[in-house]
Amino acid sequence: MTRRKKVLLLLCLAAFLACVFFFRQYLPAPGSSDEGAYEIYSRHYVMITGREDGDFWDRVYESALEEGKKRGAYVERFGGDLAVEYGRKELLKLAIQASVDGIIIPGDEEEETMALLEEAVEQGIPVVNVLQDSMGSARQCFVGNNSYNLGQDYGRQILGILGAEADGERMFVSEPVSVLVLVDEGRTDSSQNLVLLGIRETLENQLLNSSMVTVETRPVDNSRSFSSEESIRDIFLNPEKLPDILVCLSAVHTKCAYQAAVDYNKVGSVQMLGYYDSDAILEAVAKNILYSTTALDTEQMGRLCVEALDEYVETGYTNSYMAVDTRLIRAEEAERLVERE
What we know:
The protein is an alpha/beta fold and 341 residues long.
C-alpha cells in the first residue's frame, strides 16, 4: 500500500470516528424546533417497547426521557420512527450492535431473548427489564409491579363485587360465579400465571365455599392489528358463556372489552375489572361500564428505569428489583379525574 493510500485510509477512519463521537455525544435537544440546537449527553440509552399499548408506553418513555435529560443521558425510543416495523428481538440485536450505554426493554423468558440479554451484558451494556421480567436472565434490574400482589388486588376487587364485608370476615357465595381472565397468548414470562395464582388464593382464603367461584383464562391473540378486538368480541357474541366477571390485564384488552360491552348491549351483564388509566378508560369507569381499573405509576416507572441504568453505570451495581406503585380507581375518583382533565 502506498503512503498516499495509507494517509487517505487514516483520514477516512478519523472522519468516521468523529461522526460516531458527534452522534453519541451531541444529539438534538428533544422537542426542540431549532434544528441548530444541540445538547451534550454523556450516555445514550435506548427503550424498546413494541407498538402494543402505545399510550401506556408513551407515558413511560416521556418520563424516562425527562429523567435522562436531568442526568445528562439521552433516552431514545429505539425503532419508534422507522418505516419498517421490527420486533423486539430484532431491535435488541440492533441496540447491541450499536454499542449503546444501556437498554430498557420488557422481558420474556424465551431462549433467544435470554441469550441476547446475556450477550448485551457481556459486551458491557446494562439491561433493565420493565413491566415484564426475564427471570433468571443476566439483566441488571426489573422495574415493575409484583404480579402476585396484583393478582391479590384483583381478587379483593372480585370479593367486593360479590359483596364481601370490609372487616375481612370469610363469606359464603350462594350462587355459582364465573370469572374469566384475559391473558396475552404471546406472553412467555410467568407474570400472568402469578396474577392467576394471586386471584385464586385470595378467593380461597376469603370464601367459605370457593368452589362456587370458577376462575378460567381466555388467551387473546395480539399477533396482528384488530386480532385482540376480534378475540374479545367473540366472548360477547356467545351470551350463554358470558362470564359474570371479566378481568383485563392490559390497556388494550380493557379498551376492547368495554367497547364490546357497549356495542353488544352487555353493560351491567358482566362486571369488568380494567387496567391502566387512559382518559377513555377513566371515562368508562366513571360511567360504571368498568367496575374499576388498576393504574401503574408510569412516571415512576420511566424514572426508575433511568435511575437503575445510571446507578449501574456509575457504581457497577443496582437493585435487582424496583417496585412501581399501583392504585385502584373506582367510579367516584374516575369522575373527579375526568373532570380535572
